[in-house]
From TrEMBL:
This is GntR family transcriptional regulator. Keywords: DNA-binding, Transcription, Transcription regulation. Gene3D superfamilies: GntR ligand-binding domain-like, Winged helix-like DNA-binding domain superfamily/Winged helix DNA-binding domain. Pfam families: FCD, GntR. The keyword DNA-binding applies. Residues 137-160 have a biased composition (Low complexity). Residues 17-84 form the HTH gntR-type domain. Transmembrane segments: none annotated.
Amino acid sequence: MDTAPLPDADSPAGKGKALVDDTAAAIRARILSGEIPIGAQLRQVELAEMLGVSRTPVREALRQLQAGGLIEVLPNRGAVVRVPAPWEVREAYEIRAELEGLACVRAVHAVTPDVLRELREANETVRAVSRGVRDVSGGPAPGEGSSPASSPSASPSTSANDCFHTLIHTVAGNRRLARAIKDVNEAFPRNVSALVLQDNPRHREDNIREHERIVEALAAEDAERARSEMKAHVISAGEQLARWYEQRSATVFRG
């Protein structure tokens, strides 16, 4: 079977493809951090100015992101950051729960006192930030601004929460597993998870206690308990996130 040769990296075609890929990665990162909010219009001129490129790679990058499901093109609005459907969130978090549960099983016998200390410190950061709730989201709710530069990047709460989970993935010692979890996480903007915690004080406290139980299970080298606690934690987070989208998608994002 004949296949077209891939463009040489140093050829004009190869350099053009690399620029498009880099542009798509930069836009994706801003969407996932919440810097470009869900529901925001993606104007090619603004993005080109922001990224210091011409409109051509931006246009091709948006097509790439549309094919990946991160953005969509709506009548009379053009390209916008896509609002995930609640069922998509539930399905993704069901997969994530299994993967992170496996990571806990693998991490149980590799965890050290230093790792346990870092996990507890990350959770304490989440607790401390939750006391200053106004800072948790890192900016306005998605849909409140239409400019790609209207929201700042990930909040301290989101960063600490990600650190807690990523540390377990690292200790698990399986790069393919860690990459699979990362792919699931990057299906949805991270700042929305912080907004879910901001809107629900009870969920904030539950999240912190769930982290504590995971650490306790790891410290006790109880693999099945660690798996069970992590799976319950992720499923709970996914359900809260799905409900958040259900309650707001019609009014905040669609108007």
